[in-house]
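Recap from last week: sequence in, structure out.
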Amino acid sequence: MTPHVLSLLPESDVAWFTLIKPLVADFPDGVDFGKDSHGEKVVLSCHILAHAIGKVLNIWCVDGFFHPFYSHSWLKTEAGNVIDVYPVGILSGPILVHDTGNFASPVKHLYEANISVNLDVVSQPWMVSAIKIAEAIIRPMVSAKPQ
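Predicted structure tokens:
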């Protein structure tokens, strides 16, 4: 079956999604990301994964909230669609959410950009360090990016 949404998405977004899927699937378990400001072990999060993939592939990473109140980070394509590399409460990922045009997914309303997430979470020194560790893992996994 070919989902109808595939006819609505730009080929470049599908190519990005196709490239990102194995990066997420093959990301190793048990990576030591160090400790946070409270001395707690840093675990892989949407913030770490989205920022690392965004940096390596040069895709815009957005920080904000997954409604109603979950601090979250995701990727946004040039066409404006969402690639959520680590969806909140979903046993799968990444997902590609059609976020443009007249037939956009209703799921798009769950993503709300908000700079406070960047200031409060992503810019913390321990998070910056964890993102760099993830980048170092992802970079060799990338063979080529879509044109």
